[in-house]
# Entry
Amino acid sequence: MIDELINNFEESRLEIDNGEIERLVSECVPPEHLEGIPFIKFDPQDSVFREDPDILGYYNTRTHEIHVNEHDRLEGQKGLKETVLHEIGHNAQRLIFEASPEVKNLWQDLYNASWNDPCNSFISGYAATDMEEDFSECYAFYKLDPDRLAMLCPEKYNFMRHYVFHEVGANFLPFPNPWDAFANWADGEIAMV
Ligand SMILES: [Zn+2]
# Structure
């Protein structure tokens, strides 16, 4: 049960509670992405955060625990929710990549391509760190700011939609690369779509 996973968030100064994180997780995360996670804990006293207060959260790759640090007012509740989804994204990619090396290779290719292709760039500075962080950043943005992900990283948006969230259904439209549309429009060939 999701409510048993979520711990201690009422201690945040951001006036958020476990119930709100539970709602976020149940609305945004397919249950199979939570497999193996023993807990998601608001845990600013954790030694990792005490050593480096700039770390907002982490996923323990051995135990699959998720620890979340306090977020300041500027980052706000949205920042804290982003961190929770980002860390769950690390567990989701572990499961998805273990199940399918082909899907892992596909993601590696998308990550590599971002260094040369401004039309499929990185959704954040942190996403450029490596392919794992890129995945987790896109995972969180897919749910919290999908329009931005679709605009800046259309192929990664489609990857998330197809291989991660399996939301390709009747209403799926292949997402056009907006910059291609702009380039064509600039050439006077077609209007913006
Ligand atoms: Zn990460």
Notes: The longest helix spans residues 76-99. Residues 100-193 form one domain. The chain has two domains: 1-99, 100-193. Residues 86, 90, 133, 136 surround zinc ion (CB under 6 Å).
